[in-house]
Design brief:
CATH topology: Pnp Oxidase, Chain A
Structural class: alpha+beta
Strand order of the largest sheet: 2-1-5-6-7-4-3
CATH superfamily: Electron Transport, Fmn-binding Protein, Chain A
Radius of gyration: 15 Å
Distance between the termini: 43 Å
Order of helices and strands: HHEEEEHEEHHE
CATH class: Mainly Beta
CATH architecture: Roll
């Protein structure tokens, strides 16, 4: 792991919300080009969900993979034992907003299962998170809504 990646990981362990807020701010200011280790908008998006309990809007940066015209995200929570908050929010309120680069659009989240989940799981670049998590990591498809 590079020194920069280690510093970000250490900062994330200490205060993940502060790291996420910094990433979100840089992402929006640069059109998604925030540099190493995150890359650009071809691998990182911003997902805004509605809180499952609060109803408030929450934005989280996350890596994604394309599968046709769909966006695939993985609720790995860096291999933590609990699902990330954004996943719980999508399970309760599947309509969300995605930002990729300077484009913003509405999506509907579909939590995959069975063969589709297994097929899309192959896109995830950190399979070691699965073992660390001690739970099945959900794979979520974000489909662009048409007006």
């Amino acid at each position: 792991m590079s020194d920069e990646r280690r510093q970000i990981a250490d900062a994330y362990d200490t205060d993940p919300l502060a790291v996420n807020l910094s990433v979100i701010e840089k992402y929006r200011a640069s059109g998604g080009y925030i540099g190493a280790p995150f890359g650009g908008p071809d691998g990182l998006l911003l997902l805004t969900t509605t809180g499952a309990r609060t109803g408030r809007r929450h934005t989280a940066p996350m890596m994604y993979r394309r599968h046709g015209d769909r966006f695939v995200v993985f609720a790995s929570n860096a291999g933590a034992r609990a699902h990330p908050g954004w996943f719980r929010n999508l399970a309760a309120h599947p309509d969300a907003t995605v930002e990729v680069g300077r484009e913003t659009f509405e999506v509907t989240a579909l939590i995959t299962a069975g063969d589709e989940r297994e097929r899309l799981w192959q896109l995830f670049p950190f399979p070691e998170h699965q073992e660390r998590a001690g739970r099945q990591i959900p794979v979520v498809v974000l489909e662009r809504r048409t007006s």
